[in-house]
Specification:
The chain has two domains: about 120 residues, Aminotransferase class 4, branched-chain amino acid transferase, N-terminal domain (D-amino Acid Aminotransferase, Chain A, domain 1), CATH 3.30.470.10; about 160 residues, D-amino Acid Aminotransferase, subunit A, domain 2 (D-amino Acid Aminotransferase, Chain A, domain 2), CATH 3.20.10.10. It is built from eight helices and 17 strands. Helix 2 crosses helix 3 and helix 6 crosses helix 8. The mean pLDDT is about 95. It is α+β, with helices and mostly antiparallel strands. It is globular and about 55 Å long. It starts with 7 loop residues before the first strand and ends with a strand.
Length: about 300
């Protein structure tokens, strides 16, 4: 979906007009995919816009940078404030927020050690990533022919720009084949994650999501969903899943900042009960939680004006 321009973008400590947020064609990360980023959402609440688990996202950004040996020239608190300032400047009640740290212009070559690190934060209106009715009608999934990269090839624990070439190849393959999203297996054949979402499947009454060792990103939405599920008395486990587990799942959903909680109605044309009872409860509770409507989860919503 096209990006809708907002008023300003935060770049290296300053809010600049949207059309003036430019980088040089020889920016290092453009050539080598060595940036790190986050996807975050701000939601409208009864006390103004609030960014969902903002500090957790920024801390993950710093963890991604550490894995790449990238030194971000700001603190976590600095970037939390930058995200709030950017959302506030947009005037939007809700939006998608994209912080990114990248090696800038001035050095070229594979050695990143002498490179400067630039940081930006942008936000814009963005609807449901997998469709407005994804939570109720579900999405069609395809097992990708592209494997998720191994931990010793590219670090899946780091939300690195270059990692998403892998995801993009799988996403386009699925779309061109008539599906909504792709599921990626690791090189051992176990389910890892989708191109931008974590996976949950119910087998024998247990809600299962793949562990980090399978190549899945440590999802903040995933963690939120597991908390909500356990608070509702569901048995939730981190465990390996095979593609056959997905084909015969009792219910299934995916989750992420962009996709929120989206039901799955089929995998490789094997129909799955949709939406399942757990999916409906968790999706509804998550939708309330991100808007500050559930007392026990209100700490997840970091208000822009605070």
């Amino acid at each position: 979906m096209p990006i809708e321009a907002t008023k300003q973008i935060w770049m290296n400590g300053t809010l600049v007009d949207w059309d003036d947020a430019k980088i040089h064609i020889l920016t290092h990360s453009l050539h080598y995919g060595t940036g790190v980023f986050e996807g975050i959402r701000a939601y409208e609440t009864d006390r103004g816009p609030a960014i969902f688990r903002l500090t957790d996202h920024i801390e993950r950004l710093f963890n991604s940078a550490k894995i790449l040996m990238m030194e971000i020239p700001y603190s976590v608190d600095d970037l939390v404030t930058a995200c709030k300032d950017t959302v506030r400047a947009s005037g939007l009640p809700s939006c998608y927020v994209r912080p990114i740290a990248y090696y800038g212009y001035g050095e070229m070559g594979l050695n990143t050690l002498p490179c400067s690190v630039d940081v930006s934060v942008a936000c814009w209106p963005w609807g449901a990533y997998l469709g407005d009715d994804a939570a109720s009608k579900g999405v069609r999934m395809k097992i990708s022919s592209w494997a998720r990269h191994d931990h010793n090839v590219m670090p899946p624990a780091s939300k690195t720009t270059g990692n998403y070439v892998n995801s993009s190849l799988a996403k386009v393959e699925a779309l061109k084949a008539g599906y909504d999203e792709a599921i990626m297996l690791n090189t051992d054949g176990y389910v890892s994650e989708c191109t931008g979402e974590n996976i949950f499947a119910v087998r024998n009454g247990v809600l299962i999501t793949p562990p980090l060792s399978a190549g899945a990103l440590e999802g903040i939405t995933q963690d939120s969903v597991m908390t909500i599920a356990r608070d509702h008395g569901y048995d939730v486990r981190l465990d390996h899943l095979t593609r056959s587990d997905l084909y015969i799942a009792e219910e299934m959903f995916v989750c992420g900042t962009a996709a929120e909680v989206s039901a799955v109605n089929s995998v490789d044309d094997r129909e799955i009960p949709c939406p399942g009872p757990r999916t409906q409860v968790i999706a509804a509770e998550y939708a309330r939680a991100v808007r500050g409507q559930v007392d026990q989860y209100k700490s997840w919503c970091e208000r822009v004006d605070e």
